[in-house]
Amino acid sequence: MLTFVKKYRDSFFYQAAQDCILIESVINNGGVMMLKKQTMWVSVLAATLALTACNAGDEETGGSNSGDEEASGESGEVEIFSWWTGAGEEDGLLALIDYFEEEHPDISVTNAAVAGGAGTNAKAVLATRMQGDDPPSTFQVHAGEELIQTWVAADMMEPLNDFYEQEELMDKFPEELIEMVSHDGNIYSVPMNVHRSNVMFYNKSVFEENGLEPPTTLDEFFDLAEELEAAGVTPLALGDQEPWTATHIFENILLAELGPDGYRDLWNGDISFEDPQVAPAAEAFAEVLEYVNDDHASRNWQDSAQLVGEGEAAMINMGDWAHGYFHNDLGLEVNEDYGYFPFPGTEGSFNVVSDTFGLPKGVDNVEDVETFLAVLASTEAQDIFNPLKGGIPARIDSDESKYDEYGQAAISDFQSDHLTPSLAHGSAMSEGYLTQANQAVNVFATQRDVERFLSSLETARGE
Ligand code: GAL
Known about the structure:
Elements: H1 2-28, H2 37-60, E1 77-81, H3 90-103, E2 108-111, H4 120-131, E3 138-142, H5 145-152, H6 161-166, H7 175-180, E4 182-183, E5 186-187, E6 189-191, E7 193-196, E8 199-203, H8 204-209, H9 218-230, E9 234-236, H10 244-268, H11 279-289, H12 301-309, E10 313-317, H13 321-329, E11 338-342, E12 349-353, E13 355-358, H14 366-376, H15 379-389, E14 392-393, H16 405-416, E15 418-421, H17 431-447, H18 450-459
Parallel strand pairs: 1-2, 1-3, 9-10, 12-15
Antiparallel strand pairs: 3-13, 4-5, 6-13, 7-12, 7-14, 8-10, 8-11
């Protein structure tokens, strides 16, 4: 563990440490919101890591996070931190909180969700709080490297092995998912859901009016996009006001071009981005970007999904939280108003996004937090939350009758498909890497320089 942490610090913390004072003062002044858009997302994610770095640095000099200072969470109260505040996001969380409060009327829940940036702002606030020894009782964190290389590496999370034993959870989640939230034999969080990244939602009337069938390959996608454009419909909706949405499309093109094994090899370093087999993915990405709405840079994911809901655009590649948004917020019916298909070329793979919750060190109401985590881990809670949120339960023994046609199909695919980790949602690579990948995608979206793009994605591994 120590070697792991040290390696992490060597690669990122050294640079980050130099920025600690500056970043702290920016955040303390509420300056995150005041930064220019172009620099905001880079800085905020950098801040997340830098503040973690600052904290990890403190530990080396005797600082402690487990301690005496007052952390959030009075007894009888738990504070749940997430970025689920708005359209398509909040319903599941509120229903979960209601269910918890019914089950445990003696413990009240504070919903500490932070709006804006689909997690960008929340992550910055979280970093400040963790740095200031004021962790929330529990917080939303993606399974995989976001959890492990940020918070576990900084020694800020309690292992939950005993909790898993006590709640008999070891065989209730897919093994791969438990592995994603584990490090060195310790389990660090409880998965709440599974979302699918490689799904394309489409407007059924637009497809019908133009006599179109869902494409199964990227070539078919391009043919269809041409037809849609000729018919005056935007083929693909994009809202990359927050750059992860474009990275989200790129990860699925990588999956389509490389297949699940090659895609995994890319993240574990066995395939270089400069390998000739990766270039077609970047070229296809450039082509896909030709078919998006002109105002993509000023929309967020909900605004762009709305284009599909209203028939101004035909398709959107978005995690299936968009299913929750279409259904709950736009009042649309799945398989009537909108349909879905695997991102072209990725049938048989399930690109996994999983939101999880753990127990930060320094929380003083551990028992209450564990009570909350036990509820969150239950089939009842997962089957209340996930049908509203749009994804599927992380548990393997949920009640499928609680899910609509989309949910049931996704549950079945999740059981049989190759499972691959999402880059854009923190599972495949560290947050430091993702920050740089988002930046490279942003540059590529305007320059379309394949060689430069792939070389920056490769170089970012070593930084
Ligand atoms: C993802 C998260 C989802 C959803 C989405 C859009 O990172 O895992 O649950 O919140 O962002 O905000």
